[in-house]
Amino acid sequence: DVKVTQSSRYLVKRTGEKVFLECVQDMDHENMFWYRQDPGLGLRLIYFSYDVKMKEKGDIPEGYSVSREKKERFSLILESASTNQTSMYLCASSFPPSDEAFFGQGTRLTVV
Amino acid sequence: GQSLEQPSEVTAVEGAIVQINCTYQTSGFYGLSWYQQHDGGAPTFLSYNALDGLEETGRFSSFLSRSDSYGYLLLQELQMKDSASYFCANAGMDSSYKLIFGSGTRLLVRP
Asked: B71-89 pLDDT, tens per residue?
Protein backbone atom coordinates (compact mmCIF):
# COMPACT_ATOMS: atom_id res chain seq x y z
CA ASP A 1 0.00 0.00 0.00
CA VAL A 2 1.27 3.42 -1.02
CA LYS A 3 2.33 5.54 1.90
CA VAL A 4 3.39 9.11 2.58
CA THR A 5 4.14 9.73 6.23
CA GLN A 6 4.48 13.08 7.93
CA SER A 7 6.36 13.07 11.20
CA SER A 8 3.80 14.95 13.28
CA ARG A 9 0.05 15.41 13.11
CA TYR A 10 0.03 18.45 15.41
CA LEU A 11 2.81 20.84 16.39
CA VAL A 12 2.91 23.93 18.57
CA LYS A 13 5.98 26.14 18.25
CA ARG A 14 7.01 29.55 19.51
CA THR A 15 7.66 32.60 17.35
CA GLY A 16 11.27 32.67 16.20
CA GLU A 17 11.88 28.94 16.57
CA LYS A 18 13.38 26.92 13.75
CA VAL A 19 10.86 24.25 12.79
CA PHE A 20 11.42 21.05 10.85
CA LEU A 21 8.57 19.18 9.16
CA GLU A 22 9.53 15.76 7.88
CA CYS A 23 7.97 13.70 5.12
CA VAL A 24 8.84 10.18 4.00
CA GLN A 25 7.43 8.23 1.05
CA ASP A 26 7.89 4.53 0.36
CA MET A 27 7.00 4.50 -3.36
CA ASP A 28 10.34 5.49 -4.90
CA HIS A 29 8.67 8.58 -6.36
CA GLU A 30 10.76 11.19 -8.15
CA ASN A 31 8.62 14.19 -7.22
CA MET A 32 7.83 15.47 -3.76
CA PHE A 33 5.87 18.54 -2.78
CA TRP A 34 5.10 20.69 0.23
CA TYR A 35 1.78 22.54 0.26
CA ARG A 36 0.16 24.84 2.71
CA GLN A 37 -3.61 24.75 3.13
CA ASP A 38 -5.61 27.62 4.59
CA PRO A 39 -9.42 28.03 4.50
CA GLY A 40 -10.60 29.44 1.18
CA LEU A 41 -7.12 29.44 -0.34
CA GLY A 42 -6.84 25.84 -1.46
CA LEU A 43 -3.49 24.08 -1.60
CA ARG A 44 -0.66 26.49 -2.25
CA LEU A 45 2.68 25.10 -3.34
CA ILE A 46 5.61 26.08 -1.14
CA TYR A 47 8.41 24.00 -2.64
CA PHE A 48 8.80 21.16 -5.07
CA SER A 49 11.60 18.65 -5.58
CA TYR A 50 12.03 16.53 -8.72
CA ASP A 51 15.15 14.65 -7.63
CA VAL A 52 17.59 14.29 -4.75
CA LYS A 53 19.13 17.67 -3.91
CA MET A 54 16.99 19.35 -6.61
CA LYS A 55 14.33 21.84 -5.61
CA GLU A 56 12.19 24.56 -7.07
CA LYS A 57 10.27 27.35 -5.45
CA GLY A 58 6.52 27.19 -5.56
CA ASP A 59 4.11 30.09 -5.23
CA ILE A 60 4.81 30.98 -1.59
CA PRO A 61 8.43 30.06 -0.67
CA GLU A 62 9.17 33.10 1.52
CA GLY A 63 10.10 32.10 5.04
CA TYR A 64 10.63 28.45 4.12
CA SER A 65 13.44 26.25 2.89
CA VAL A 66 13.62 22.56 2.03
CA SER A 67 16.04 19.69 2.05
CA ARG A 68 16.09 16.49 0.03
CA GLU A 69 19.21 14.47 0.81
CA LYS A 70 17.58 11.11 0.10
CA LYS A 71 14.95 10.23 -2.47
CA GLU A 72 12.39 9.10 0.08
CA ARG A 73 12.63 12.08 2.44
CA PHE A 74 11.66 15.71 1.90
CA SER A 75 11.94 18.17 4.77
CA LEU A 76 10.33 21.58 5.10
CA ILE A 77 12.14 24.08 7.30
CA LEU A 78 10.71 27.23 8.81
CA GLU A 79 13.84 29.26 9.49
CA SER A 80 12.21 31.54 12.06
CA ALA A 81 8.58 30.65 12.70
CA SER A 82 6.04 33.44 12.67
CA THR A 83 2.37 33.49 13.61
CA ASN A 84 1.33 33.89 9.97
CA GLN A 85 2.83 30.47 9.30
CA THR A 86 0.16 28.84 11.44
CA SER A 87 -1.47 26.48 8.98
CA MET A 88 -2.01 22.93 7.77
CA TYR A 89 1.03 21.60 5.91
CA LEU A 90 0.64 18.76 3.43
CA CYS A 91 3.36 16.69 1.85
CA ALA A 92 2.80 14.77 -1.38
CA SER A 93 4.72 12.63 -3.84
CA SER A 94 4.18 11.57 -7.43
CA PHE A 95 5.87 9.67 -10.22
CA PRO A 96 6.01 11.69 -13.44
CA PRO A 97 4.41 11.85 -15.91
CA SER A 98 1.47 10.85 -13.74
CA ASP A 99 -0.64 13.62 -12.20
CA GLU A 100 -1.62 11.25 -9.40
CA ALA A 101 -0.11 12.57 -6.22
CA PHE A 102 -0.26 10.78 -2.89
CA PHE A 103 -0.62 12.88 0.21
CA GLY A 104 0.40 12.52 3.81
CA GLN A 105 -2.16 13.15 6.55
CA GLY A 106 -0.92 16.66 7.15
CA THR A 107 0.72 18.54 10.00
CA ARG A 108 -1.30 21.22 11.72
CA LEU A 109 1.25 23.75 12.89
CA THR A 110 0.38 26.45 15.40
CA VAL A 111 2.92 29.21 16.02
CA VAL A 112 2.32 31.15 19.22
CA GLY B 1 2.43 31.30 -14.39
CA GLN B 2 -0.48 29.06 -13.59
CA SER B 3 -3.90 29.68 -12.09
CA LEU B 4 -6.97 27.50 -11.80
CA GLU B 5 -10.35 28.98 -10.90
CA GLN B 6 -13.23 27.11 -9.27
CA PRO B 7 -16.48 28.15 -7.57
CA SER B 8 -16.01 28.27 -3.83
CA GLU B 9 -19.13 26.36 -2.88
CA VAL B 10 -21.86 24.22 -4.44
CA THR B 11 -24.93 22.73 -2.77
CA ALA B 12 -26.99 19.85 -4.16
CA VAL B 13 -29.57 17.31 -3.07
CA GLU B 14 -28.93 13.62 -2.46
CA GLY B 15 -29.53 11.63 -5.64
CA ALA B 16 -29.03 14.64 -7.92
CA ILE B 17 -26.24 15.46 -10.40
CA VAL B 18 -23.77 18.25 -9.80
CA GLN B 19 -21.08 19.80 -11.99
CA ILE B 20 -17.98 21.51 -10.59
CA ASN B 21 -16.22 23.75 -13.09
CA CYS B 22 -12.56 24.64 -13.44
CA THR B 23 -11.07 27.24 -15.75
CA TYR B 24 -7.34 27.53 -16.06
CA GLN B 25 -4.58 29.76 -17.32
CA THR B 26 -1.21 28.08 -17.57
CA SER B 27 2.05 28.67 -19.37
CA GLY B 28 1.98 25.00 -20.32
CA PHE B 29 -0.51 22.23 -19.99
CA TYR B 30 -0.25 18.47 -19.71
CA GLY B 31 -3.74 17.68 -18.46
CA LEU B 32 -6.28 18.33 -15.73
CA SER B 33 -6.69 16.19 -12.66
CA TRP B 34 -9.26 16.17 -9.86
CA TYR B 35 -8.89 15.46 -6.16
CA GLN B 36 -11.35 14.95 -3.32
CA GLN B 37 -10.73 15.98 0.26
CA HIS B 38 -13.03 15.23 3.19
CA ASP B 39 -12.84 17.43 6.27
CA GLY B 40 -9.84 16.43 8.36
CA GLY B 41 -8.51 14.15 5.63
CA ALA B 42 -5.85 14.24 2.97
CA PRO B 43 -6.65 14.93 -0.70
CA THR B 44 -7.10 11.79 -2.79
CA PHE B 45 -6.82 11.47 -6.54
CA LEU B 46 -10.06 11.04 -8.50
CA SER B 47 -9.36 11.37 -12.20
CA TYR B 48 -7.14 12.76 -14.93
CA ASN B 49 -7.86 14.10 -18.42
CA ALA B 50 -4.96 14.37 -20.82
CA LEU B 51 -7.16 14.65 -23.92
CA ASP B 52 -10.35 16.53 -24.72
CA GLY B 53 -13.56 14.75 -23.88
CA LEU B 54 -15.24 12.88 -21.10
CA GLU B 55 -13.63 10.30 -18.82
CA GLU B 56 -16.01 8.20 -16.74
CA THR B 57 -15.21 6.37 -13.52
CA GLY B 58 -18.31 5.01 -11.87
CA ARG B 59 -20.50 7.85 -10.58
CA PHE B 60 -17.81 10.40 -11.32
CA SER B 61 -16.93 11.79 -14.75
CA SER B 62 -14.44 14.44 -15.76
CA PHE B 63 -14.41 16.56 -18.89
CA LEU B 64 -11.73 18.64 -20.58
CA SER B 65 -11.81 21.20 -23.39
CA ARG B 66 -8.32 22.48 -24.16
CA SER B 67 -9.58 25.04 -26.66
CA ASP B 68 -11.73 26.62 -23.94
CA SER B 69 -9.18 26.12 -21.11
CA TYR B 70 -12.01 24.55 -19.19
CA GLY B 71 -12.87 21.35 -17.44
CA TYR B 72 -15.44 20.00 -15.05
CA LEU B 73 -16.10 17.19 -12.64
CA LEU B 74 -19.55 15.62 -12.82
CA LEU B 75 -20.91 13.71 -9.86
CA GLN B 76 -24.02 11.62 -10.41
CA GLU B 77 -26.42 9.94 -7.98
CA LEU B 78 -25.07 12.12 -5.21
CA GLN B 79 -24.63 10.55 -1.80
CA MET B 80 -24.15 12.21 1.56
CA LYS B 81 -20.59 10.89 1.66
CA ASP B 82 -19.79 13.01 -1.43
CA SER B 83 -19.86 16.10 0.77
CA ALA B 84 -16.24 17.20 0.56
CA SER B 85 -13.94 19.70 -1.11
CA TYR B 86 -12.96 19.09 -4.73
CA PHE B 87 -9.82 20.47 -6.34
CA CYS B 88 -8.74 20.66 -9.94
CA ALA B 89 -5.00 20.50 -10.55
CA ASN B 90 -2.51 20.84 -13.36
CA ALA B 91 1.12 19.91 -13.84
CA GLY B 92 2.22 22.68 -16.18
CA MET B 93 5.28 22.89 -18.33
CA ASP B 94 7.19 25.16 -15.95
CA SER B 95 9.29 22.17 -14.87
CA SER B 96 9.06 18.50 -14.20
CA TYR B 97 5.36 18.05 -13.44
CA LYS B 98 5.07 20.65 -10.71
CA LEU B 99 1.49 20.14 -9.55
CA ILE B 100 -0.57 23.28 -8.95
CA PHE B 101 -4.07 23.20 -7.42
CA GLY B 102 -7.12 25.37 -7.73
CA SER B 103 -8.64 26.99 -4.66
CA GLY B 104 -11.19 24.20 -4.28
CA THR B 105 -14.98 23.81 -4.34
CA ARG B 106 -16.79 22.80 -1.21
CA LEU B 107 -19.71 20.50 -2.07
CA LEU B 108 -22.52 20.15 0.41
CA VAL B 109 -24.99 17.35 -0.24
CA ARG B 110 -28.35 17.79 1.50
CA PRO B 111 -30.85 15.03 2.22
From this structure: 999 999 999 999 999 999 9
